């Protein structure tokens, strides 16, 4: 049984077929160290008062939520008014559309969850849906009402289970036009592209997340551990400063650099902590 509690229990529905499933968070909330501001002389955490400019501290019951519709002007909403428009958590997630595994731009993906059958009776239908998605190379799309909000979600095979990923809605995504407008429309030199493709092929390997480590988080945890062992004594860090970029001309012989990279004989398997992995496809 999973160590964590399900965030949702309900029916995953495909037309007239309903599958009892449970949803679990796929990422760890406490994977990275978090910090609080501390008053050094006393060692106690710092708290902040709610204050209004020109008024000073205010009572909690005087505070309302406000939506800024113009600079400095707000529409005030009570908690009761906000609660009234929240959606009830529905016990059914219906897959209303299916798309190809590469049809959703990665920019839309937000947070992953594991989907597992709730019991032995649901497992047969669960396997049918999982294998059908895998064989057809499709992703299921639906909307999930959870914690008062409605989430757009995508479901795909993942190992022996299913992975649900919440998606950003269209109005949450910034348009790229203003960011990419300054990039010229001319195509790159064909010969250079071919050399770059050869370099990419040479360094291509199956993605394995275990090859990549967060060196900053590891160093931070080591520092915390040493501080605890030192019992408040001063601890020096052995972290070397980042290398300075070599001074010189910005003019680079791109073709020469590409060919030299291709001739270095770099291993296809990436070193730990280098590069970035591409998005996974349905497995």
TrEMBL record:
Any Pfam family the entry gives: Ku
One GO term (biological process): double-strand break repair via nonhomologous end joining
The keyword DNA damage appears for this protein: yes
Keywords: DNA damage, DNA recombination, DNA repair, DNA-binding
UniProt feature, compositional bias: Basic and acidic residues: 235-247
One Gene Ontology molecular-function label: double-stranded DNA binding
Annotated SMART domains: Ku78
Region (Disordered): 231-283
Domain of life: Bacteria
Annotated InterPro entries: DNA_bd_Ku70/Ku80 (IPR006164), Prok_Ku (IPR009187), SPOC-like_C_dom_sf (IPR016194)
SUPFAM superfamilies noted in UniProt: SPOC domain-like
CDD domains for the chain: KU_like
Complex formation: Homodimer. Interacts with LigD.
Similarity comment: Belongs to the prokaryotic Ku family.
UniProt-listed NCBIfam families: Ku_bact (TIGR02772)
Function: With LigD forms a non-homologous end joining (NHEJ) DNA repair enzyme, which repairs dsDNA breaks with reduced fidelity. Binds linear dsDNA with 5'- and 3'- overhangs but not closed circular dsDNA nor ssDNA. Recruits and stimulates the ligase activity of LigD.
PANTHER family on file: NON-HOMOLOGOUS END JOINING PROTEIN KU
Protein name: Non-homologous end joining protein Ku
Organism, scientific name: Paradevosia tibetensis
Encoding gene, per UniProt annotation: ku
């Amino acid at each position: 049984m999973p160590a964590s509690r399900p965030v949702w229990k309900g029916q995953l529905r495909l037309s007239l077929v309903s599958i009892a499933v449970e949803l679990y968070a796929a990422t760890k909330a406490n994977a990275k160290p978090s910090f609080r501001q501390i008053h050094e002389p006393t060692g106690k955490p710092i708290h902040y008062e709610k204050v209004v400019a020109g008024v000073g501290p205010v009572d909690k019951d005087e505070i309302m939520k406000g939506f800024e519709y113009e600079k400095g002007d707000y529409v005030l909403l009570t908690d009761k008014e906000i609660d009234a428009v929240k959606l009830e958590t529905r016990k059914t997630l219906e897959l209303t559309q299916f798309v190809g595994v590469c049809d959703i731009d990665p920019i839309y993906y937000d947070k992953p969850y594991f989907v597992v059958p709730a019991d032995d009776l649901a497992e047969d239908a669960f396997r049918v849906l999982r294998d059908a998605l895998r064989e057809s190379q499709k992703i299921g799309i639906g909307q999930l009402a959870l914690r008062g909000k409605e989430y757009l979600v995508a479901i795909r095979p993942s190992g022996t289970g299913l992975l649900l990923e919440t998606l950003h809605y269209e109005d949450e995504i910034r348009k790229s036009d203003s960011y990419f407008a300054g990039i010229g429309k001319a195509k790159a030199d064909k010969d250079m592209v071919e050399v770059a493709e050869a370099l990419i092929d040479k360094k291509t390997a199956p993605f394995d997340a275990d090859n990549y480590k967060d060196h900053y988080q590891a160093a931070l945890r080591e520092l915390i551990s040493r501080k605890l062992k030192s019992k408040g004594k001063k601890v020096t860090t052995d972290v070397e400063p980042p290398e300075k970029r070599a001074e010189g001309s910005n003019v680079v012989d791109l073709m020469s650099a590409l060919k030299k990279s291709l001739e270095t004989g770099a291993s296809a398997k990436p070193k730990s902590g280098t590069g970035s992995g591409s998005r996974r496809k349905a497995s």
